[in-house]
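Q:
My hope is that you can spare some time for a protein that puzzles me. I hope you can help me see how the letters and the tokens relate. Thank you; the sequence and its tokens follow:
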Amino acid sequence: MSRRCELTGKTRQIGHRVSHSNRKTKRRFLPNLLNVTLMSDALGRSVRLRISANALKTIDHRGGLDAFLLAARDADLSPRALEIKRQIAKKRATAA
């Protein structure tokens, strides 16, 4: 399982650990990933995703999973999230 957010594409970053004597050694900054179950209003079912804490806050801010996915770029989404986005768009198109 990769250390990558399924919604934002946030992944590990590389930097330096700097000692008091200013020696630099490589280190990794890992995203704060959470396994969450989110409810999709359009699909009427829950979806399990591995997302970052930052993405979880953004979902709440934008008004739910459906609104977040419809506004998200396809390049950032994982294949699972992209499939959920397509299902939501299809469901909304048939409802309208």
Q: What stands out?
A: The longest strand covers residues 33-40. The CA atoms of residues 36 and 49 lie 6 Å apart. DSSP finds three helices and four strands in the chain. Residues 32-95 form one domain.
